[in-house]
Write a structure and sequence with these properties.
It contains eleven helices and 14 strands. The protein is α/β, with parallel strands linked by helices. The structure holds nicotinamide-adenine-dinucleotide.
């Protein structure tokens, strides 16, 4: 592990995920952290907890040349413009998912990142979760032969996400940047990670009318992967029962993971369990966020392209934007 203390990280957006990353950065040894948020109460509260500097704007923050990294954790519609501003100052980028809500500015962002030799990673934390990470490892070990089909599912209930706040006023409910496709984009990322690049062939949507918000609450995407495999990706924040799982069929068996069963299973073609990998006892969900930050900082140090890099992020977003086309606008 590189010395995380060498980095100065500006956390842009001190909301739920920004605060989590700020705390985790401290846990992994980043000494210089600063917080930027236009909401004075929020930024001061986190800055006091972290004993760190706080700024109302990124322009003020970038005057501090100890800052080498920007962690973009603001509402989605600000991600790309803030990432471009930070990259133009030579800052490495950790950008929360989804990368953006439109394709605007993505070419500029890619160009500046390349020209300035920056490391850029999208917050694809589910890749670092025990379940999906184990699925990916077993796929790469060839446990089910060649993958032919995947079902990647997430169903949850938006009003339960942030019980202390009114979800109808959150970015999730904003037609410009909300909806289940962008909010639940992790599962699109996982489908591409498991089975490779893909094209969207079909998408059906259900509006979140029952939640009283003008966005899609459920989306079912069909993907055709360049490998010849296909996948169904189900994204919903209208389901009171939380479900998250994947099933991947291959020429020699089936791999499955379920967040509640806490086990990854390999079955042969006749359905016999060949291998069962249990989640480590006491597994803490925050570990995946720590692991993704450690991976990101290690990639800056080594120059290795991170998992969930900008090229992958653009591919994932492109599928999400196609799925959103003609809705919410
Ligand atoms: N990877 C994950 O697990 C995960 C989890 C939650 C959120 N997210 C993503 O992170 C982003 C933020 O989500 P959240 O749940 O923390 O939201 P939040 O509403 O809790 O916090 C957003 C914060 O950004 C601040 N803000 C508003 N405008 C800003 C600006 N121009 N510059 C800087 N800060 C600004 C707000 O004052 C607020 O403090 C979203 O894009 C969301 O999709 C990712």
């Amino acid at each position: 592990m590189p010395d995380a203390g060498n980095h100065g990280v500006l956390v842009i957006g001190a909301g739920s995920i920004g605060a989590r990353h700020a705390r985790n950065l401290r846990t992994i040894g980043v000494k210089h952290i600063a917080i930027c948020d236009p909401d004075a109460e929020r930024r001061i509260s986190i800055a006091q907890e972290m004993s760190c500097d706080d700024y109302a704007t990124i322009e003020q923050a970038f005057k501090d040349d100890r800052i080498t990294v920007a962690a973009v954790c603001s509402p989605t519609k600000f991600h790309v413009s803030q990432a471009i501003a930070a990259a133009a100052q030579g800052k490495h980028l950790f950008i929360e998912k989804p990368l953006s809500h439109t394709a605007d500015g993505l070419d500029d962002l890619q160009r500046i990142v390349k020209e300035n030799h920056l490391t850029c990673m999208i917050g694809c934390n589910m890749r670092f979760h025990f379940g999906p990470a184990t699925v990916k490892r077993l796929l790469e070990e060839g446990k089910i032969g060649t993958p032919t089909y995947a079902e990647v599912y997430t169903g949850s209930y938006l009003p339960d996400w942030r019980p202390k706040t009114d979800y109808r006023r959150s970015y999730s409910a904003d037609p410009a940047q909300g909806g289940a496709i962008l909010d639940c984009i992790h599962e699109i990322d996982l489908a591409l990670w498991y089975l490779g690049e893909a094209k969207l062939t079909e998408c059906s949507l259900r509006q979140a009318d029952s939640l009283g918000i003008p966005v899609e609450g459920t989306a079912d995407l069909k993907l055709h992967h360049a490998s010849g495999a296909s996948s169904n990706v189900h994204l919903s924040f209208m389901e009171k029962e939380y479900k998250r799982y994947c099933i991947i069929k291959g020429t020699e068996g089936t791999l499955s993971w379920d967040i509640h069963k806490k086990t990854v299973e390999v079955q042969d073609t006749s359905g016999q369990v060949q291998e069962s990998v249990p989640e480590p006892a006491g597994y803490d969900i925050n570990q995946m966020y720590i692991d993704e930050l450690q991976h990101f900082l290690a990639c800056i140090a080594s120059g290795v392209v991170p998992m969930g890099n900008l090229t992958e992020g653009v591919r994932v977003l492109s599928i999400a934007l196609q799925a959103r086309k003609n809705i919410n606008h």
